[in-house]
């Protein structure tokens, strides 16, 4: 069973006046089949955690370890991490002019699966996945994320999640900017992947709204660059009622 | 992508993340040249490099084409022409009225070529002849220096596709004239696939007859220095020019395309799309797009676009669109120039989907060129160009 283990992770970014530490010792273990919600106020380091795990060059790991089934993730290049089974659904997916969605998906699936998917089954696979996410088939011929609405970008991210079948899925504020209908469609997509029991999910969010659709097994409050509190789904209810105030104050006085 | 776009007459400042885009604040196409057009090389001073039309070109790499020191010699340049039945091919003197009819040389090298060639080659498609197969012209250099002149003439209502391939090595200054009779349709694909040490300069003049249409696809992949002047002139109203260009400039290469569309006749159309990718230290691409709409050219419809994709550090782009309008009674006039960088965020996004960096870069370049190639509308040509792009990408990765 695939396990992502994060131990005492410290991460810095280059700021105007030298490196600034964003993650200050994160410990977290995500197993296949589990869903962990990471909640926290803006600026607490949630997205830094997501991008650091995917290997974005902007972030420097200054301490700690990340392993996937014992393999050192931090030693891997960005594409190696993806091929090892780490998937990051981005909050702000990037436009890639001139590259069609269909071409992109096929190239990506070929890289992840280690061989080109058979054309006939692939076309059907993509078509069905798009239908489930209520995406217009014309989408496949558009350039990656170019001119996509916020909702379209997120559906496209979840489409990739469904097709690439990672071991660990990191969803970085996938709910942000979605109306209720889009949120439901996207959440259903995530749930389909979760129901296979093959993916460990790290659901990063600012709001509790998405947790009505995607039920986490574990909820972690992120504040000041580390996990401030962990619990079950009831912790989300507490945050819904009380907000992050207690943690933010704790963060500033620490 | 940094983008400068305007419609029609105000001229914006371009900017770029790498390389540079300069947009002229004002221009007068005629007065920017250091000498008026002429067939005689003696009418042009030897350039020193600061002239408007020479300022981007590394003169030292021209192998003497610009200063008269280059002399024809060395292994012969091989020119092989194969044409379907009905097409005539002859070698003529420069006194032949068709030679030079499409336009006078505009710079010293074009005039040098005109003054130095021995025989001009004339390929003619008789009027109302519609060719089913392309005319193929293969130009292959083996290290020598050569001057040439090629005329391609279509009679009224004739239709033809011409594919010109340049391969091998050498120094070549050669002009090409395209003469389109009324209602004729000519598509020309000119591929500059030279070895890395070749030098190739030339002026390509098209004189477009009444209601005729000219489509050109200029593809520059190779050479140490390639400098071409595609130029359009209209002999009657209703003419149409579609000019496509594609270049892949690699480390140390200088590839320069200087276009000029002279709208001096009413109700003509021109549409220019040139796209280039650059990769490697001192890769230098220059694109000049001059469009002049003269007072008589009412009903003109023109648009020109240049896009550049900079793949690595150390490459430089100079992209200068100029639009000069002397009448307001036109259908449309606009231009756009943009130089973008294949940026780290795009690379990260593709890599985060398992795609290795090299493959990601190829994917983006292929897509960038495919957008242009799909507009050409000739499946054979499109297929050939994409496989050429593919081969170029493979070679660049190796």
Structure description:
- The complex is a heterodimer of chains A (254) and B (398).
- Chain A has 254 residues and is α/β, with parallel strands linked by helices.
- In chain A, 36% of the residues lie in helices and 31% in strands.
- Chain A has 8 helices and 12 strands.
- Chain A has helices spanning 46-54, 78-84, 101-113, 119-132, 150-164, 180-195, 234-242, 245-253; strands at residues 3-15, 18-31, 35-39, 59-68, 71-72, 86-89, 96-100, 143-144, 168-172, 200-205, 218-223, 226-231.
- In chain A, strands 6-9-10-3-11-12 form a 6-stranded mixed sheet, sandwiched between helices.
- With 398 residues, chain B is mainly β.
- Chain B has a 17-stranded mixed sheet that branches.
- The chains are: A alpha/beta (254), B mainly beta (398).
- The interface between A and B is medium-sized, with 31 and 25 residues.
Summary tags:
heterodimer; A: 254 residues; alpha/beta; Rossmann fold; six-stranded mixed β-sheet; four-stranded antiparallel β-sheet; 12 strands; globular; B: 398 residues; mainly beta; 2 domains; 17 strands
